[in-house]
Amino acid sequence: MAPKIKVLIVDDEEPARQKLKLFLATETDFEIVAEAKNGLEALQLVDDHHPDVIFLDIQMPRLDGLAVASNLENKSNIRIAFVTGYNEYAIKAFELNAVDYLLKPYDKGRLCKTLDRIRDRTHRQAPYSISKLVRDYRSEQSYPQQLLVKTENSIEIVKTAKIEWVEACANYVKICLADNVFIARQTLTMLQSQLDPKNFVRIHRSHIINIGSIRKVTPLSKGDYNLLLNDGTKLRLSRSYRESFFQQFAP
Questions:
Q1: Looking at residue 93, what is its pLDDT?
Q2: Which CATH number, 3.10.105.10, 3.80.30.20, 2.40.50.1020, 2.40.10.10, labels domain 146-247?
Q3: Which of 61, 68, 75, 99 has the greatest CB tally within 10 Å of its CB?
Q4: Contact between 127 and 79 (Cβ < 8 Å)
């Protein structure tokens, strides 16, 4: 007998959680292992229960569902089905990358289609990219003012405007603020997908900076530049990223 598909439900509205639990109660191959009412709880429950699929509400206070998804990039075994109140046109950008989405208010018939897609993805292990999902969705929506950052010992909330620069460290990133530094368990590509490209730019394969933190740009040889930041940090602008960097300052 195949093991049951373990489900985590994440939604800030209790009636929405209760509805989904009621609908899933008749599905014998699914097992609800936990439920969360916010993103902080969700990330802790992922570590505690190792779900196979997360029904993840997008619109939650302070931190949306995309912030939660952004911290799951390295958990390739988890499938995400978004639950959203947005009109359908607004979610076309990530429709093909999420396992599925449920547009509120949905009925049992629509949920059954999602469950079939989850079963299919679970059994055949189809290629799945959470980072692409987040990047595509953000390209059609506004970027968050706060990020959920999972460190070794805690879960932090970081205001994006306070981020000065970010450095890649294998599967970790060092997020540098004016008054603090966080080491977070995600990749630079995943973090960049959450940052507004109008304010943040890649300058090197290992660095992203907030353009508002730049004090001085100094040319070097072979097309590279030195960037002096407000806090005194010096970073190299690689010629591979030079064009996109200077486009940020074009009139």
A1: 38
A2: 2.40.50.1020
A3: 68
A4: no
